[in-house]
Here is the input.
Amino acid sequence: MGNPIHSEIDFDADGRQVGYLRLPHSVHRSAYGWLPIPIGSVRNGAGPTVLLMAGNHGDEYEGQVLVSQLLREIEPQWVRGQLIFLPMANFPAAEAGLRVSPLDGGNLNRSFPGDPQGTPTAMIADYIEHTLLARAQYLVDLHSGGSSLLYHGANMLAIEPRDAEENARLRTLLAAFGLPRAFLHAPNPVHSATAARRQGALSIVTELGGGGVVQARLLREAREGLLHLLGAIGVLHGPLVPARPPGETHFYRVAGAPHYVYASERGVYEPLVELGEQVSAGQPAARIHFPDTPLKPPITVAFAAAGEVVCQRAMAAVQRGDCLFHLAQPDER
Here is the structure.
């Protein structure tokens, strides 16, 4: 059986269209109801297709604002090809302002390739991968740190390229976006970026600030970079395309587990370093305090590797297993 999600818009039609993906959802208050996932398309003849996605995690707001804004502002005559806009990809999570769906606990960016007959989150993942990404040559998935994490400024992520040709293409695209940092990481089969790769599309994922807020400077920087990228791809021309990217991109590599620091106990964490700081292996990262047991001394957790602090936990209260810091190392190859 196919995916039951039905689109109100015709992806093969030129012009601007806005509507909903209807995901059937039968509940007590609405036996024959459906969930309204916002979707838009601006299409004008032949050319590349780019999927602009936000709300993959529902508590990450910068991308939701930016995708909605560009859907309103980009005129069809400025497009060569197609832009598909998905501002609230995991709509139940985005509507609730949660990282995961309140309907099924589903984390969309841990759900690809999905299941057309599964839970709501699994059905959304299947539709994105096998309907939307199957049409696209590029994916831009706009993330931020959400409620629990705070990234150092505006960043990009991309999967490690498979060969020299893909490396050259990917680094050209990342430089055209022009955000300060680009992290290269190993593929994860359940992420949107790997879903795009399975469908033959190149992907760029952003991490823009976080902390459950929208920072005006980061939003402006991401908007300028995204518009310049769309111009470099050739899908967009006209007055919105900047003459140059917002800045120079520096490349970093994430070395897996050694680049993450986790809470070892439940308590209140005190960071001992700042975002953007260079740290060394063995350096103290944070102290965890126990206000409910005032005479118990705090414990110290340390970095396992050297690198730059690019992300830290936004909330002071922690439980064992919560991520406190994320590092990356420069890679200018």
User: Anything to note?
Assistant: The chain has two domains: 6-253, 257-330. The longest helix spans residues 216-233. Helices lie at 62-73, 91-96, 120-132, 164-177, 192-198, 216-233. The mean pLDDT is 96.
